[in-house]
Design a protein that fits this description.
The protein has one domain: Aminopeptidase, CATH 3.40.630.190. It is 36% helix and 24% strand. It contains 8 helices and 16 strands. Helix 1 (39-82) packs across helix 7 (324-337).
């Protein structure tokens, strides 16, 4: 009998001898007793988690650093694209004396310096339901009934909207229905858009004409919008409340109305049939643009998603050369400086009745003085 077995009076006659081979050592895998682990033995586990957290932090840091570097590159590229005036020669009137390719001006006893923090964006409203041409034929792209230049001072946040009459007479490139260059012709600005593909070549031809009106100042960016986009963009900010500057259609002069959907289209599109009708419509459009800008800012402050909705909605109905880098630069500039003011001006001049259509002739001296006020800073 093993020494592990000691019989007493309570034992049965059954042999319950315990042999050494029956004794099994305790294993951590056995679910018999909880294993006691001293606190000092748990420290390596904490060190492991510290390593994991450190790795995650480094990955996150590298991600943020990469994003920041990309953002700065885009911002730099955007600034370079939007405020590049290298080699630019700005024209002037005879009464002004200029230096540095027209960037320094002496006029009426004052000195002006061109503001190179400014960028210009041409905005065109096309009188068609969609962007493009019919059967790829030049001359079917429609006309740019609305022409405005958005002038943004990226340093101060000041924004000026220059409205240009659709009927202003200007030299422009003309092309055949096959797209072959046919020379230059002096005619209404709105026609410049028709000589192109209804997209980028149409926009570029219009921008070239606008730059001639602005004495050669570069217009770095453009966006054209078809009629179908006006309602959705208007509604993307919850509608626009505006006071009509004239009585036309359902709108009454001096009466305020909140425009929604087709109402917004009618407000900016309708016009009479006399020679000054387009000028009155332009004034109405400027009133709308001013109120739209205010409403968009208020909507964005309430809901930051407004910016995304506007961008996505506009993209469906427009053609533009504005790249991501330009958007990044403009967004950061305006967000950091704030929109300090929105001013609206129009090209001064006189509307006349031509042989067939109305013709607007700009006042060159008054327009140059407006250019000095918008694009230049007065210096001592």
């Amino acid at each position: 009998m093993s020494r592990f077995h000691k019989k007493n009076k309570y034992d049965s006659d059954k042999d319950v001898t315990l042999n050494r081979t029956d004794i099994k050592s305790y294993s951590e895998d056995d679910d018999v007793f909880p294993l006691y682990i001293p606190k000092e033995n748990a420290k390596p586990k904490k060190k492991k988690w510290k390593k994991v957290l450190l790795i995650l932090f480094l990955i996150f840091f590298l991600f943020i650093a990469s994003f920041a570097i990309t953002f700065l590159i885009l911002q730099h590229q955007g600034k370079k694209a939007l405020t590049d005036y290298k080699g630019v020669v700005i024209e002037s009137i005879d009464e002004a004396k200029t230096q540095n390719d027209g960037k320094t001006v002496y006029y009426n006893g004052k000195k002006y310096q061109f503001n190179e923090n400014i960028t210009s964006i041409a905005c065109m409203g096309i009188d068609k339901d969609d962007i493009g041409t019919y059967v790829d034929k030049i001359g079917t792209a429609g006309q740019a009934d609305t022409n405005m230049v958005l002038v943004i001072d990226t340093k101060t946040g000041e924004v000026t909207v220059i409205s240009i009459p659709r009927d202003i007479m200007v030299d422009m490139g003309v092309y055949t229905t096959k797209g072959d260059y046919a020379g230059m012709k002096n005619q209404q600005l709105c026609l410049a858009y028709a000589y192109g593909d209804g997209k980028h070549t149409s926009c570029r031809n219009t921008v070239d004409a606008i730059e001639r009106i602005l004495f050669g100042i570069p217009v770095h960016s453009y966006v054209s919008l078809d009629i179908e986009g006006i309602g959705p963009i208007n509604d993307a900010i919850g509608g626009v409340t505006v006071k009509s500057t004239e009585t036309i259609g359902e709108f009454r002069k001096g009466q305020s109305v909140t425009l929604r959907g087709k109402q917004a289209v009618d407000f900016v599109r309708d016009r009479g049939d006399d020679k000054d009708a387009s000028i009155r419509r332009m004034e109405r459009q400027m009133a709308y643009v001013s109120e739209f800008g205010s409403a968009a800012v208020k909507s964005a402050k309430r809901d930051i998603g407004t910016i995304t909705r506007l961008y996505n909605t506009t993209s469906k109905y427009s053609c533009t050369n504005v790249e991501l880098s330009s958007v990044t630069y403009l967004a950061t500039s305006l967000l950091s400086n704030g929109v300090t003011g929105l001013k609206t001006v129009s090209i001064p001049g006189e509307m006349k009745q031509g042989a067939v259509y109305a013709e607007f002739y700009m006042d060159k001296t008054a327009t140059y003085e407006m250019i000095l006020d918008v694009y230049y800073n007065e210096v001592e």
